[in-house]
Amino acid sequence: VNRPFDEENDMTHDSGDDLRPLLAAAVADAPEHTDLLSGVRRAQRRRRVLVPAAASVATAGAVAAAITVVTVGGAPSAQAKVTAAAAQSAGKSFHVHISSPKGPGDGAFDPARRVGHMRYGGGETLFVGGTMYIRNTGPKAVPLPRGKVWLSAPGPNDADLAQMGTAIEVLKLGPQNPQYVLGRLRSATNVREAGAASGPGWTGHRYSFTIADTKNVKRPGLSLSGTVSVDSEGLVRVLDLNVRTGGPGRSQHSVVEFGDYGVRVDVTAPPAGQTISVDKVEQPRTTGGRPGKGSPSPRP
Amino acid sequence: VDLDADFVAFVRRRGDHHLRTALLLTGEWHAAEDLVQAALVKLYRAWRRLDTAEDPDAYLRRILVNTHRSWWRARWRREVPVTGLPERPGPADGEDRHAVGQIVRSALATLPARQRTALVLRYFEDLPEAEVAELMGCGVGTVKTHVHRGVQAMRRLLPDDVRADVNADHRQGSGSR
Fold it and tell me: Do the chains contact at B31 and A39, CB–CB below 8 Å?
């Protein structure tokens, strides 16, 4: 390291004590009444819900059959149909196409084999087991050692998910991993029949729904609504989503199309020589701003 | 959900302090709150296994530093970089305390992450260099270098009048006690 000649001497004699009041001043405008325990409470509630949810994915067919028992006047309710379709779809492999303000995305997932791939917004992500491999390209690229082109990272954990609301989860995770969107659809409320729907090679029904973002008490302006089209075999075909991100007129519209159910999806992890764990890469600089609204510049 | 009473008491007693540390690490109140909440989720999972003689502050601080270090891997958390420091509002602004806080945080946010972390642990958490080194997983010499360069950068980045005002207020506050 090329240090200035006198840096060693400076380090010894410069106490840096003038920094203490400055750092104290930097936190003097703390907001009052911050409920720091809400995240722990949400995580505890989520842990109780996650276990049966995971079991239901493993036995998606059985769950779908069981859910149709929920009936209104002898016929399955709209909510039961959507919930069953989400559970059934989430257990099958599929191709997916996304249209959103950030551009189109295409990918394929096989939940049973826990693999998937997604190209979206100029980026590429592979899912193998519980690990995500993110190609380090584009404006979000960070400096990596020579020869490394993939960042490996574990998928979001309970702690991450506990503090996002459903709307944020769908907004941020949906384009990377549409399986999350299907999973969240099972908590849809206020589901109503909205007419016939069709697409290439399928016909079915459309349902409108809302998902109350009760988890995100911190950002109460968030909400998720839209329509879901379910084909005659009870599989989700199109999700038309509106995520309201707070404030008048602030919303994001995305369309997620599912198809080719049962398709074979082959994904292998990138070569180890081209991969580096995110834990070994220093955090890029960030400053104030709202999460998810952009990307940091690569560090020089 | 009923949480462990000792845990709740600890968070009520010390949560705000750790929120401030998180603010200095992340640069933004919402991100700081998210970071502390994520760290508390992890702490709570280990809470019953913690040795009662163990210092929960130190345990939570370690989780905070590690969580913050690994957070950027969740790409959706990334934030918009600010190219320059915000202009300092005039006295008529009426929110001087907030403005000064924002200026110092913005300056801090432009430092490389390891430099910023070292600076916060050394001068806000008031930890000895050896403890900072242990928390950051590096040598004491590296911490000294990070801290020194961080201090130099902050002096360079912050307007003279902001530094002078804050230090004058501090001296006045200390003298009046």
Answer: no
* Residues in chain A with pLDDT values less than 70: 1-14, 32-33, 45-76, 102, 121, 138-141, 155-180, 187, 212-223, 245-250, 279, 281-300
Mean pLDDT over the full length of chain B: 78
Alpha-carbon gap, residue A77 to A273, rounded angstroms? 52
How far is the CA of B172 from the CAs of A5, A19, A20, A30, B104, in angstroms? 37, 16, 15, 22, 20
User: CA B65, CA B67: separation in Å to the nearest integer?
Assistant: 6
The b-or-e profile of A155-179 (16+ CB within 10 A means b, else e) is bbebbbbbbbbbbbbbbbbbbbbbb
- Give the gap in angstroms from C-alpha A45 to the nearest C-alpha of chain B: 7
Q: What is the pLDDT of residue A33?
A: 65
Q: Which of A172, A128, A145 is nearest to A136 (CA)?
A: A145
Set of chain A residues whose Cβ sits within 8 Å of the Cβ of B13: none
- Closest B-chain CA to A164: B34
Contacts of A27 in chain B (CB under 8 A): 20, 23-24, 101, 124
> Residue B152 — pLDDT band, cuts 50, 70, 90?
very high
Write down the pTM of the prediction: 0.49
A238, containing H or E segment: strand A236-245
- How does pLDDT run across A211-242, given as a tens digit for each residue? 765 555 445 556 678 898 999 988 889 988 88
Residues 256-295 of A with CB under 8 A from B: 278-279, 282-295
- Binary contact (B123, A26; C-beta < 8 A): no
CA distance B174 to A90: 62
Nearest residue of B to residue A45, measured between CA atoms? B1
> Is ipTM strictly over 0.85?
no
pLDDT tens for each residue of A151-164:
887 766 555 555 55
Chain A CB contacts of B124 below 8 Å: 20, 23-24, 27
- Token pair 């659809």: residue: A185
Please report the residues numbered 124 through 153 in chain A whose beta carbons come closer than 8 angstroms to any beta carbon of chain B.
134, 140, 151, 153
3-state secondary structure chain B: CCCCHHHHHHHHHHHHHHHHHHHHHHCCHHHHHHHHHHHHHHHHHHHCCCCCCCCHHHHHHHHHHHHHHHHCCCHHHCCCCCCCCCCCCCHHHCCHHHHHHHHHHHHHHCCCHHHHHHHHHHHCCCCCHHHHHHHHCCCHHHHHHHHHHHHHHHHHHCCHHHHHHHHHHHHHHHHHC
